[in-house]
Amino acid sequence: MHVPMHRVHEPPAEVDLSGINLNLMVALEALLQEAHVTRAAARVGLTQSAMSHALAQLRELLGDALLIRGRGGMVLTPRAEQLVAPLRRGLAELRRALRHEPPFEPATASRRFTVATRDYFGSVLLPGALELLGREAPGVDLSVLHVESSTYPALLETGEADLVVVTPPVESGPGLRQQKLFTEDFVCVVRKDHPTVRRTLDLDTYLKLSHVLISPRGDGVGAVDVALEKRGLPPRRIAVRVPYFLIAPLVVSRSDHILTAPRRLIATFSEAYALQVFTPPLPVRPFDIFQVWHDRFDADPAHQWLRGLVARAVNAGSESTQSSRRVRRAPAS
């Protein structure tokens, strides 16, 4: 699409909101997300010519081109990139404020919550949460997003996620609240017919084995490596790095590798994958799991119920995991 040359004016020091059509802000949100006039028009139900006219008005209002032609199509100007997050937050808040919602009653509610987490936490939380939802709130749906520690504050701030379940470091950014859900420790697993590991797992055998490391970014070291270095022990051989928690038990079940992983994860898969479970032959520091939410939802009854449901799902998982604590103890090293 041809973008005509236009004059760019300096924006006023203060924007007079009384003279701005709110539909322009909706159009701007679509333009910034799509970076394409035709797709933005379709997104909000306008014709292409109407969206082109809206873009011209926005350029005049904001004193910036907003979208310019690049090699692969239209690209956002630096000013437009600065507008993406605050505009999305502002419109999301306005939509929530204008939306009429009856008092939240779980048994009769019909709505969707979005929880952002990683695959391990999902495997720990989801079964119990879905069981509780089925009993208490059959009309409530749940969406799960994958999250990185660097992105979840923005997800909560914009309302794209209602709740985040993460492990430290937890950023105590502005407007964020958090609650510790549980402390997780580690166990070691090998396949049940492993040629070397039988009924016990000592430190010498542990160090001679090849290891699987769960590494979301494919690099770095794990809690075991930190523990080995702290005790002045030689590094282990990491034969396989996998990006997802749920892959690791399957890899171990079909190889001679050993895996040191969160207890609750292994409790979920130890029987299905025929795994032997052992206490680690050296102390490995446990870690804490938190749920995090935005302050503006702190007193909201629906979100309070959601946080309570997640906490109860964790407690239900704790009870079902107690049997997994009856693992074989490693002899003293």
TrEMBL record:
Report a single Gene Ontology molecular function.
DNA-binding transcription factor activity
Domain called HTH lysR-type: residue spans: 20-77
| Cleavable signal peptide | none
**Which UniProt key words apply to this protein?**
DNA-binding, Transcription, Transcription regulation
Which SUPFAM superfamilies does the protein's record reference?
Periplasmic binding protein-like II, Winged helix' DNA-binding domain
Q: Which family does it belong to?
A: Belongs to the LysR transcriptional regulatory family.
Its organism's taxonomic lineage begins at: Bacteria, Pseudomonadati, Myxococcota, Myxococcia, Myxococcales
Question: This protein is called what?
Answer: LysR family transcriptional regulator
Transmembrane segments annotated in the record for this chain: none
- Record has Transcription regulation as a keyword: yes
